[in-house]
Amino acid sequence: MIEPAMTHEPLTDGRLRVVIERIRPSVDSGRFPLKRVVGDVVRVGADVFTDGHDALAVRLGHQLPGQADWIETDMEPLGNDEWGADLEAGSVGLHRYVVTAWIDRFATWRRDLVRRVEAGQQTQVDLQIGAQLVDDAAARAPGDARSRLLEIADALRADAGGAGVGLALDDELRALMATCPDRRFETRSASHELVVDRRDARFAAWYELFPRSTSPVPGRHGTLLDVIERLPYIADLGFDVLYLPPVHPVGRTFRKGPNNALTAGPGDPGVPWAIGSDEGGHMDVHPELGTLADLRTLVSAAGGHGIRLALDLALQASADHPLLREHPDWFRARPDGTIQYAENPPKRYQDIYPFDFESEDWRAMWAWFRDVVRFWVTQGVRVFRVDNPHTKPFPFWEWLIRDIKSTDPDVTFLAEAFTRPKVMYRLAKLGFSQGYTYFTWRNTAEELRTYFEEISRPPVSDFFRPSIWPNTPDILHEYLQLGGRPAFATRAVLAAMLAAHYGIYGPAYELAEATPREPGSEEYLDSEKYQVRDWSLDRPDSIAPLIRRLNQIRAAHPALQSNDRLVFHAVDGADLLAWSKRTADASDIVLTVVNLDPQRPRSGVLHLPLELFGIDAQRPFEVHDLLNDRTALWHGEAQEIALDPSETPAHVYHIRPALRAEQRFEQYQ
Amino acid sequence: MIEPAMTHEPLTDGRLRVVIERIRPSVDSGRFPLKRVVGDVVRVGADVFTDGHDALAVRLGHQLPGQADWIETDMEPLGNDEWGADLEAGSVGLHRYVVTAWIDRFATWRRDLVRRVEAGQQTQVDLQIGAQLVDDAAARAPGDARSRLLEIADALRADAGGAGVGLALDDELRALMATCPDRRFETRSASHELVVDRRDARFAAWYELFPRSTSPVPGRHGTLLDVIERLPYIADLGFDVLYLPPVHPVGRTFRKGPNNALTAGPGDPGVPWAIGSDEGGHMDVHPELGTLADLRTLVSAAGGHGIRLALDLALQASADHPLLREHPDWFRARPDGTIQYAENPPKRYQDIYPFDFESEDWRAMWAWFRDVVRFWVTQGVRVFRVDNPHTKPFPFWEWLIRDIKSTDPDVTFLAEAFTRPKVMYRLAKLGFSQGYTYFTWRNTAEELRTYFEEISRPPVSDFFRPSIWPNTPDILHEYLQLGGRPAFATRAVLAAMLAAHYGIYGPAYELAEATPREPGSEEYLDSEKYQVRDWSLDRPDSIAPLIRRLNQIRAAHPALQSNDRLVFHAVDGADLLAWSKRTADASDIVLTVVNLDPQRPRSGVLHLPLELFGIDAQRPFEVHDLLNDRTALWHGEAQEIALDPSETPAHVYHIRPALRAEQRFEQYQ
């Protein structure tokens, strides 16, 4: 791939004198689209200037999804050659924006005329110069404006009774001239792309479960219809998206047994990611889970609960996948005639065959993958979680996601990429709507602060939307293994309150399932990846009530619905992490303080930036703990905090915006 | 001008899997050339990665000036997907660099084979896979390598006596394979440009004078031959470049008199920037100064003193310029038939006509300007100071400078642009070798520190070379007007020790000429711009000795010959500014401390970063004051400093690199 050249362009016309630089926001100077959600307003800025002293006209062009025309807005000068204008992300889809600018000879002449008049230098020649500009404009103007402009030009030349200057500076002339500017020598910036997604691409709570483990009858393989029965529970907890691991036929050859055993017993269900068998491949439903009709029913039933269904897109095949017969050239053959299975020596994954993305037939293979996604989109699925995207070529993802979104712009893709930092960010730039993060491995206050500052601010936040998962079927972190139920509570608060987009793998999470396959492993013992599990959802020690409350708080507080304005606050005290989120106008402020030590009570002094909150440091303000529904009056920037993990892992305070004095103390009257 | 597009490129081949990002150093992602001087080594870095786990080959390509071929060097992996290699700026001219990378299937296979062998997993099939890679390579290899590769491939397949693995891992095979890599799917970055200038584009001391004032006979108009007589004085002071204001015929119509009087007397010489009369224009020498032959003689005589002559490139015309008749369409006509003079209402410059860069005939006009520069290049002039480049279009400068340097890459251009920050930086990016700065108006310690940190570090230092002038014929700052001789000494030390490239307008500077035309003005009283002056160079209060010493210090100390590693140091004490410069290996370190108050003695405690200097904080070190030739032993990072402006404005210390113990105290034995 030739990266776009930025070097010297051939000279077209030396009279194009305006320079446009540093358009912002932009991702890698416009190479990749900016990401926003519908309803956002993007403040677009640019450096625009020319040689000499001429006045400029600077406009922001905005192309709406699917439109050929550009809507133009005047950009305002902000000083130091910076210009700005707002762009409304009013609809889901691919928008474009561009900055254009030209030298405005009429505005220059008008400005200079004012100065000349003030200095007593104005002459007839100045009015004649203006008349010529007006004449020229008339030639470009629509019919009715044209005749009026010609009239004014004549009047300027005549200057009857010295009326010329008044006419020249009149708003009528300015308005008429604005209808027909001379843009022959305008400079036009590179066009920048803006992908606008649904609001829940930014703000959502995901719940992952294995349908195989949803049967009400212990030991029976769960079905998609069983999942429907689980929907009220998931909706009650406040989740927006239900994500299922692959629902396709599971391969039989080399099928793995419980706990990743190399051979499976006759009743073992195998790994859902080993896709494909005699019963079909990526466009089929695993018979033990049900039928395609059942899946459509599930999509519809979930919708009735306000829940969207997310499917897994895992581009790999089991040894039994029909594609191995239909398209053997999509896989890499070995000299002994066998097909190359997945491996990262010395690790071997004999039940999974990767596609060979260097196949001569790559175009047909790409098209087939696209057909897979379109097939599920047709079934009503609009949300995809993509398995291991970092093991498929980058150009493929850029193409696939653009292609799907060109017809279905509301479809979103979550990248399951736990890989190197630059690879994760590249995937985000290429189009993934959200990405998994290193959150699982960030456990100390300093680690969390540093990481969330990186991912919640530009440049990263302009292209990467973090999706925060305290656990996944692949990752049971040592912190959870050792910390027990308080650790699960703490990590849930961190995920839900730090990040607008988060998810859990349940019911393992709310039931605080904490036993690893073996010491030092991050794999679950008796993982659902390899076997059916039964879960007692009504166990009294479930942290479901905390999770329900967190999701309620998120829904009620706009401050928590984006990662903008996430600010960490100083705490004098070990293992305490404090941060706030607030809306742009500070009308909603949520302050969270967490004890990161799941074993020991911790206390310390918290320091708050009251000015940022719009709070007068000389007056008391109200804080309402949303977890325990207690209200307190605080005064000043320093506050004592104490948290005992045996009681609660955190305080989640709603800081009440300033009220009028007579209302401030209503609860105490 | 359409700015280069950075948006979505059409897909060429989906199998180009390697990504190259963030090549550095680069100026605006490669849109503009990087600047270096001959002898520099550029450490080039890039982020390079691919999907999955394949091994990469990454190379830095380097195209030398005037060459079509690219020289390739392996880039080394530095961790976190970053790669680096050195590029030598070995010759003056336009270099290019590019990063190329591809998936190295042989290296991947070899690495995996080692892992397989270690894990006891190696099989015959693995060797057969390798044999196929070697066979494929043979088809690409030169004749002698080809037959050996085919031999090895057969031997790998045969694996006689189990010798296959040893053969596979042998360095012979690695070396042979490196001669014929499979680069079908390589990724090639955008080509980046590197302008390499002569060393004195970065490190030089300029001396500006008006030839009109060099006559030994008071009142007589000086000549270019008089300037030759002045050369020994200038060389003795240690200057490298002698810059003359325009030497062309001066216009007569609207000629200005002394102190910018609207009318000139019969003997008044006029303003040298009002170029053009019946006696010629931009390619002629003003008869009162001499002839073209005299100018060539001056160039040659200056060269004999190690001094290069810089001419002024002022693209404007007096009312008498021959071009007004030959090319009236290069100027803007007014409706009354007159030509538009320069103005910025209410200011008017009736003696100067700007060119109309929006003329239909702009191409011919540009070509004529280029011919002007080429004419003087032919006369031996290689250095130009460009007057007011910010009032001519940016594309013109980019074209002109590239054009001249394409045949004469050693020619340099200093931009006299005292204008808005973004405009100054744009001019630098477009190709100016150095630029004037805001130094004149930066007088407090905080102002100087902030400004020099900005201009001495990337990204600015990659394209902008500051030229530091404490005075010019247009600017006599209030600090000099009020501070008297000590102020001139202080500003000379600041300019010469802070910046590798600096200049003074003399003899006004060394004679501390400090009287403004009127209070509040930055214009000189009786400015040479409008009249001939006599100067008494041997006045006892001249600061020429200080300037001579500063230039000697600069010549002797490599640390002062670039702005890299300029570091300011904390001083507890008002009006004191302290900084150091050092070479990359810290073998030369120069520490300067200046009292910015020209009236009062100042003292304070200086804090030094000894670790940066490679000095053991537990041991004494030697400092040698290069201004007064005194040596002292210091111990520890805190040092008392006292400076009385009536004695010296500054200490300029050479910090001696660590010596062996028996040598350290040699001066005290």
Structural overview:
The structure is a homodimer. Chain A has about 675 residues and is an alpha+beta fold. Helices cover about 25% and strands about 20% of the residues of chain A. Chain A contains 15 helices and 30 strands. Chain A has a seven-stranded parallel beta sheet with strand order 20-19-18-13-12-11-21. In chain A, strands 2, 4, 5, 8, 9 and 10 form a six-stranded mixed beta sheet that branches. In chain A, strands 22-24-25-30-27-28 form a six-stranded antiparallel beta sheet, covered by helices on one side. In chain A, a hairpin with a 4-residue loop joins strand 27 and strand 28 (about 630-635). In chain A, helix 2 packs antiparallel against helix 3. Chain A is globular. The N and C termini of chain A lie far apart (about 70 Å). The model of chain A is unreliable at about 1-10 and about 665-669 (pLDDT under 50). Chains A and B meet through strand 1, helix 1, helix 2, strand 9 and helix 9 of A and strand 1, helix 1, helix 2, strand 9 and helix 9 of B.
